[in-house]
Amino acid sequence: MKKVLFLFAVALSLTSNAQQSKSLNASTAGTGLTKEEQKMMDYIDANMPRAIALLKESVNINSGSLNIEGVKKVGAIFAKELAAAGLKTEWISLPDSLKRAGHLVASTTTKKPKGKKLFLIGHLDTVFEPDMPANPFTILTDSTATGQGANDMKGGDVVMILALQAMQAQGLLKDAAITAYFTGDEESAGNPRAVSRGDFIERAKQSEVALGFEGATGLVTVATARRGASSWRLDVTAKTGHSSGVFTQSAGYGAIYEASRIINEFRLALSTEKYLTFNPGIMIGGSEMNYDDSKAKGNAIGKTNIIAPNTTVVGDLRFLTEAQKNNARAVMQNIVSTNNLAGTKAVITFQDGIPGMAPTEGNSKILAVISGVSTDLGKGVTVAGDPGSRGAGDISYIAEFMDCIDGLGASGKGAHAVGETINLNELPFLIKRAALTMYRLTR
Ligand SMILES: [Zn+2]
């Protein structure tokens, strides 16, 4: 009974949304939307309950990046929806050694496409693994809902899928060349990246414009640039001995003090640089310790009266351009190899992750199309968001090959935190914006 009431409430709130946006469209009729475009808008309004149902269904399947079965299940649900829009779907498997589920790809089969060839980007996985607290899809108020990946980015996947269905319903996909790519390991990509992103990059190269459906930061901003991500690992070893001798030249300072000195120096030297961030995510030290990179897990044994001989710190490093990344690495390397505390040795290693997506003129041209769409929908112009407000994303792997825009997905709060939310009231506009953008780019 509860369920029935709940669904009824959703349907009610969506109906009122639909009415709101209908009156919005009516008031802007004649200012830019063609008849065909208006029909797509009406389709989206009419199908919002289905959009929410799809969101709920996908959110309620745990699909942490390491949960291979869960990621495949979400992929199967989306594949069905994309096939319903007339797209050809396939599953890209990865070698077992990567311990990742693989990816879903859906493409139109148009022989002579019009306009730009589009590459749409989503992901099936979330940061929430099965051993983390469950958070079933729940409507919190009339306008927000919570659930694992509701915002990042099952909401964005739904935006993309409904927009494609809206195009298909008006026969507007038949002349379009569109490939929709949903990675299964965006939040924790399998290594080596050349394998986990090889097919993604190859297919993208056959397109001209990439549209990413990661979370929207506000209704009238999109990302024309994104920061890249990489990681580092600091290993400190030191003389051990009785704690009573600590701070002396002969006994030394131990590995924990030296590791602390180093990461504090990192902060002092680099923390105010624009677009640069680095975060020590785990620090383990003691008499005996181990850290398993593949599981992001470790343990330590130590005593308060023993100077710690081992410490490991692992962190990320985010940047806008390669030059910024390389400069930060040089500064960090210098801190690690100079002025070491007595009795300690430190080594830092860097690992490349996702490249940055630099702001380009081509990206700005696509932004202009999106801005035209949001103006025609009565929301005013769309502008480029601050690249510093975003992490890295799959779109960055292909940014050097084509024009790119990200942030076309769902709006909400608290991505990557338990209790993340999606704003359901804004979903109809975001789906409409996506559908109109894709349509206008493929004419
Ligand atoms: Zn995401």
Q: Major sheet, described briefly? A: 6 strands, mixed
Query: What class do helices, strands and sheet pairing give?
Result: alpha+beta
Order of helices and strands: HHHHEEEEEHEHHEEEHEEEEHEHEEEEH
Could you give me the name of the CATH homologous superfamily of the largest domain? Answer: Zn peptidases
List cofactors, ions and other ligands.
zinc ion
* Fraction of residues in helix: 25-40%
Regarding quaternary structure, what we see is: single chain
- Spatial strand arrangement across the major sheet: 1-2-6-3-7-16
Number of strands: 18
CATH architecture of the largest domain: 3-Layer(aba) Sandwich
- Helices, by number, come to 11
CATH class category name of the largest domain: Alpha Beta
Shape: elongated
